[in-house]
Specification:
Blueprint lengths: L1 E6 L5 E2 L8 E8 L2 E9 L7 H12 L4 E4 L4 H9 L3 E4 L4 E2 H13 L4 H10 L21
Parallel strand pairs: 1-5, 5-6
Antiparallel strand pairs: 1-3, 2-7, 3-4
Length: 142
């Protein structure tokens, strides 16, 4: 299950700028469906830009994908560096509609960018190479 965050003021639509958002709804999403995992409410944004970005990023650091209606360049770079895929959607886009699309895509054939996100957030799905696993294959016997 992926955790997907939504910048929202009311829990029904994506309508917040990342830096000014005071509420992120985090859903667990998989090919079988989705469920609200948690609502994370924040205080007013700090005056300092770095502190503002850090507080918002800390609220979604466990998410694989983040839906916002807008995000600044510096914040987007920090979100990507935290291995979160930011998605800008039109203000007022319904969260249920987005979740339904994510479920359909995950149940079908995810596009390359989403396969990369899945791989990054499911380490057991993509085992890492280790020297112990590189031993030669056993010789064939006759």
């Amino acid at each position: 299950m992926l955790k997907i965050g939504f910048a929202t003021s009311d829990g029904s639509a994506v309508d917040q700028h990342f830096g000014w958002c005071r509420r992120f709804d985090v859903y667990e999403v998989g090919p079988e469906g989705y469920r609200l995992f948690e609502t994370r409410e924040l205080g007013p944004a700090e005056e300092d830009e770095e502190d503002k970005i850090a507080s918002r990023l800390a609220a979604v650091v466990d998410c694989a994908i983040l839906n916002v209606c807008d995000i600044g360049g510096t914040a987007a770079a920090k979100v990507v560096k935290a291995r979160i895929h930011p998605m800008k959607v039109a203000k007022g886009t319904e969260i249920d509609a987005l979740l339904t699309k994510f479920v359909a895509v995950l149940a079908g054939s995810p596009p390359p960018w989403l396969r990369k996100v899945l791989k990054a957030h499911s380490p057991q799905a993509a085992p890492a190479w280790t020297p112990a696993s590189s031993s030669p294959a056993p010789a064939a016997t006759d």
